[in-house]
Amino acid sequence: DQQVKQNSPSLSVQEGRISILNCDYTNSMFDYFLWYKKYPAEGPTFLISISSIKDKNEDGRFTVFLNKSAKHLSLHIVPSQPGDSAVYFCAALNSGGSNYKLTFGKGTLLTVNP
Amino acid sequence: DAGITQSPRHKVTETGTPVTLRCHQTENHRYMYWYRQDPGHGLRLIHYSYGVKDTDKGEVSDGYSVSRSKTEDFLLTLESATSSQTSVYFCAIQPSGGNIQYFGAGTRLSVL
To answer: What percent of chain A has pLDDT over 70?
Structure first.
């Protein structure tokens, strides 16, 4: 049973436009959500996160939106740049649980075309 | 750089041979994790550790064992490698009091 779903395996956008990456979750105990970016041959790097007490968190060009009632979050990148081309993983956590185990989605490959 | 070193970075081995991957951290974090990444599966947790000699299974632990005899080192062992264990393996640490995990650069393992 996949608790964190990224239903779009890939996304292609033009440079300068907005990229929107989506993520859905099923476990109501998740209360903290993270986005990681991964380049080929490198480890995932933390990008941005959001707690369930918020519905938006912004960091520069990156904004994460959380809709708890729909169990949906999205990552917005504005404006998109070619260097943003990477695989993006959504992850979720029950921060009240033990051992801080993250549950990851399968990832979305973002390609930003010049 | 979260002070995580994975070794080796690449390894090719034969089916049935034992393999040990090492994760070394420099900052004495309590929590350490091993994941594998495969196309179409994202990142899946193999085993994790919450202290020296304290380890537990993740969602894909069959065929793997781990050991943590020192805070700084977390070892992943494939007792008898199989082709299905061909993958990229990532180690991660989590600083206490936070919710963010930081990853190493990965080990690409090929089992022929």
So the answer is: 98
